[in-house]
């Protein structure tokens, strides 16, 4: 490449025009023009390498973004940018925040929604499991398990994101406990027993204890 640049400069010094050299060597005239201008300025035909755009944030500021995102996982990139500017005076874009957190393995993801369980719930469920751990299939054949799911007719944009690392989807700090769903919806109930199951029951009205007992349990159990 340096030899080719030397050929270009040699021809131009011999009085050839840039257009003639361009047509002879098959190189764009703009390239030849820039090379000739650089040679006239400093006598150098080597390629000038750029160090690239300077980094906006320091390592300490990168750590600040990481710590802040972990402390409040629901913070948006804009929130983190404003907090960094307020704390250090450094202004960065949302994309810079995404890149800095991505370098340490934190990405904006939708959280898992789950039904909240108290310590009492967990203790009672564990005790029940231990009591029935040695039951035989004959004993289980007399037990029916039922469950219901509510399908909301109201849209949920789920625009709430959290910062989390890959493989930590179901960690407690990355879940949102939710047991109330507003708006209209349908409730679907079903039961299973060893070797059999009930029909699905669809209920559109608001479910209460009396409706659950009179409409579902007494008719299907």
UniProtKB/TrEMBL annotation:
Family matches, as InterPro entries: Cro/C1-type_HTH, Homeodomain-like_sf, RNaseH_sf, Transposase_Tc1-like
Record GO biological process: DNA integration; DNA transposition
Subcellular location: Nucleus
Residues passing through the membrane, by range: none
Domain Transposase Tc1-like: 62-132
Pfam families reported in the protein's UniProt record: HTH_Tnp_Tc3_2 (PF01498)
Cellular component, GO, one term: nucleus
Alphabetized GO MF terms: DNA binding
Family matches, as Gene3D superfamilies: Ribonuclease H-like superfamily/Ribonuclease H
Name listed for the protein in its UniProt record: Transposase Tc1-like domain-containing protein
């Amino acid at each position: 490449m340096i030899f080719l640049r030397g050929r270009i400069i040699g021809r131009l010094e011999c009085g050839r025009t840039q257009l003639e050299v361009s047509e002879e060597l098959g190189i764009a005239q703009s390239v030849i023009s820039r090379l000739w201008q650089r040679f006239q300025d400093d006598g150098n035909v080597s390629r000038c390498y750029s160090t690239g755009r300077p980094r906006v944030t320091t390592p300490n500021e990168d750590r600040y973004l990481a710590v802040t995102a972990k402390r409040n996982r629901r913070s948006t990139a804009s929130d983190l940018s404003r907090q960094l500017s307020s704390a250090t005076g450094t202004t960065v874009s949302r994309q810079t925040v995404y890149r800095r957190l991505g370098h340490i393995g934190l990405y904006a993801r939708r959280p898992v929604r789950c039904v909240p369980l108290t310590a009492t719930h967990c203790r009672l469920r564990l005790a029940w499991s231990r009591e029935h751990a040695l039951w035989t299939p004959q004993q289980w054949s007399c037990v029916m398990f039922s469950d219901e799911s509510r399908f909301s007719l109201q849209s949920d944009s789920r625009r709430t994101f959290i910062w989390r690392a890959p493989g930590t989807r179901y960690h407690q700090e990355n879940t949102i406990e939710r047991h109330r769903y507003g708006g209209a919806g349908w409730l679907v109930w079903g039961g299973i027993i060893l070797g059999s199951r009930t029909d699905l029951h669809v209920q559109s009205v608001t479910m209460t204890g009396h409706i659950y007992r009179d409409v579902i349990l007494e008719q299907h159990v």
